[in-house]
Design brief:
The protein has 345 residues and is an alpha/beta fold. 42% of the residues lie in helices and 17% in strands. It has 13 helices and eleven strands. The protein has a six-stranded parallel sheet, with helices on both faces. The protein has a three-stranded antiparallel sheet with strand order 1-3-2, with helices on one face. The protein has a two-stranded antiparallel sheet with strand order 4-5. Helix 2 packs parallel to helix 4, helix 3 crosses helix 4 and helix 7 packs across helix 8. The longest helix is centred in the first third of the chain and has 19 residues. It starts with a strand and ends in an 8-residue tail after the last helix.
Length: 345
């Protein structure tokens, strides 16, 4: 059965936000609901098509309108995630995406940092409600960026007196000893991603002063040994490259009034073969411990270029295929050659 509906948008600014730049958001809605015909005239959006599809499309547009009113910058990516969360039926009020994605973490340098997916929103909520939070997921899911935004927000609100950002300096293909420069210069490339994110959130001119005063510290994980970190927001990045012992050492640095966030991707371990990842071990050992949260982000939470999500899904599919295939054994011909290694006599 076909039906028609009309959605009226009284505020012209809201209508412009709902349509998106160059009608890009509306195009995303049309792509999601190919059986529904959409027509925009003045302050009205007319819909026609199968009754169920039209009802869900109206609910999706109403949700997107709520997000615009809530101040969420609407892009095709945000619209796609909102409609994915909405699913096949209108969500109850407490599960709607507008409040979820309208959550503002930090306003800095003319822009607002906020979660852009359901998984990111759950991750941010976990950080706010737990002393230690593990953010585990692939590249581009905002694990480190959102954690650092939370750290800067906590510092600005005076909930903590300092921020500590750390990473393991694990050799990924090159040896530190062969790199030029002093120890500090050799380690700096490993910490550069943390500096880059920090410059997005804090006035670059104030960063040297904050670091000199000890309010912000960026250091390799090895520098954490023997310390007790009180009244601090501590972020450990690339935690998949910690050993089991290093992870235990880091977690036991926790002091009073502090918050810890540990981020990493268990599919990107650069440790020598046979070394157990401290992040994987922590997930096995600490799951279920009170006041520790584990948030698993997925390809659906990737907020970089659309292809990044597709690449992650393709690799996951390939890994699953290889894991299901038994390891090939040596052929009979290979076995016959073994006695003759070193040349024929």
């Amino acid at each position: 059965m076909t039906t028609s509906r009309v959605l009226e948008i009284d505020d012209a600014a809201v209508m412009l936000g709902l349509l998106g730049a160059g009608d890009s958001v509306l195009a995303e809605v049309e792509k999601t609901f190919p059986g529904v015909n959409l027509l925009v005239r003045g302050n009205q959006i007319s819909l026609s098509g199968p009754e169920v599809a039209v009802a869900v499309c109206v609910a999706a547009l109403d949700e997107l309108r709520s997000m615009v009113v809530a101040g969420v910058p609407l892009t095709p990516e945000v619209a796609r995630e909102s409609m994915r969360i909405l699913g096949d039926a209108p969500a109850p009020p407490d599960e709607r995406t507008a409040p979820m994605l309208a959550r503002s973490i930090l306003s800095s340098r003319g822009r607002t940092i906020r979660p852009k997916t359901e998984g990111q929103s759950a991750y941010v909520a976990a950080i706010e409600n737990h002393t230690i939070t593990f953010g585990i997921g692939p590249a581009g899911t905002g694990k480190t960026y959102l954690a650092m935004a939370q750290a800067v927000a906590a510092m600005q609100a005076k909930r903590v007196s300092r921020i500590i950002l750390t990473r393991p300096a694990v050799e990924a293909g090159e040896r530190l000893g062969y790199l030029p420069g002093t120890l500090s210069e050799k380690i700096d490339p490993y910490l550069r991603p943390l500096y880059d994110a920090l410059h997005d959130m804090v006035d670059p001119e104030s960063i040297p002063k904050l670091m000199e005063a000890g309010i912000i510290e960026v250091a390799p994980l090895a520098y954490m040994r023997g310390r007790t970190l009180n009244d601090a927001f501590i972020v450990l990045d690339e935690a998949q490259n910690t050993t089991r012992e290093q992870m235990k050492m880091f977690l036991t640095r926790l002091g009073f009034g502090s918050t810890m966030v540990v981020t990493g991707d268990v599919t990107q371990v650069d440790l020598p073969g046979g070394t157990q990842s401290g992040l994987r071990a922590a997930r096995d050992i600490l799951t279920g411990v009170d006041d520790i949260a584990f948030c698993e982000l997925t390809a659906q939470d990737v907020v970089r270029h659309r292809l990044v999500s597709d690449i992650i899904v393709a690799y996951e599919r390939n890994d699953a295929t290889h894991a299901a295939t038994p390891q090939r054994q040596r052929t009979d011909g290979q076995k016959r050659r073994l006695p003759h290694q070193g040349g024929d006599r």
